[in-house]
Every structure is written in C-alpha cells, then in structure tokens.
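As agreed, record copied across for absentees:
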Amino acid sequence: MSARENGTDFLVGLVLGAIVGATVATLFTPQRGEETREALREKGAELKARVDEVASKVAEELRQRGQVVLEAQRARLEQALEEARAAAAEARAAAEEMRTRFLQRELFERGESAPEG
C-alpha cells in the first residue's frame, strides 16, 4: 500500500470519526427535543457536505491513478506494436531473401543463369 493510499484512508477515517463523534456527542447532550432535532439536521447537512468532499477527493485521486495506468499501458502497447512491426519487416526480408535464392537455384538448374553466392 502506498503512502498516497494511506493518506486517503487516513483522511476518510478522520472525517468519518469526527462525524460519528459529533453525532454521539449531540445525542448524549441534554437538550430539548426540538434543539436535538435541529442539531441532528445540522450535523446531517455537515455530514453530507463532508462525505461529498471526501468522495470528490477520492474520485479525483482514482481518476488520476487510472490515467497513469492507462498511459503506462498505452506506452507498453505502442512498444509491443513497434516490436511486432520490426519482427514482421525482418520476416518479410528473410522470406524475400529465401525466394530470391530459390529462384536463382531454379534458374541455375535449368541452365539459364549462374548462381550467386
């Protein structure tokens, strides 16, 4: 696990811990019913805002990581394609060389030309 992942995990844990702690403190603080409901609404709005913020940060980090992986895979694919093209060119050249030698030998055996090399 990388330091970056640990940082994200810590941030998520910190936010969730703070939210749970605030909610528990609100529930156990002696207040009238209306005050408690209002406090819970406020805490709920704060919770939603914090969760949205953390979710946005995590989503952005995941997008960035995905982009890095995508770029690395694209580079590997391009390298593999270049190697395949080079191998295909070598195979064509070797096949052409074999064809030329074969034709020269055929012509020599018919007496139409002298062999080369």
About this structure: The chain has a mean pLDDT of 83. Residues 78 and 106 are 42 Å apart (CA to CA). Helices lie at 3-28, 33-110.
